[in-house]
Description:
The protein is of the alpha+beta class.
Amino acid sequence: xxxxxxxxxxxxxxxxxxxxxxxxxxxxxxxxxxxxxxxxxxxxxxxxxxxxxxxxxxxxxxxxxxxxxxxxxxxxxx
Length: 78
């Protein structure tokens, strides 16, 4: 899978392989991209409750919606 994050307005892309683990920081917008045959397990941690913990970020969508596998590989920043 690949993880796209928007950090201080800049796109950061990481590609994760088998047995790799990633954690996102609170309040950092992120999207996951699943390659064919990807298998993941997600654990959501943090405060429980009724407060909204997901917010759309149109800027992140604008920077990632058009990307394909080759673009992600080319733009990976690790």
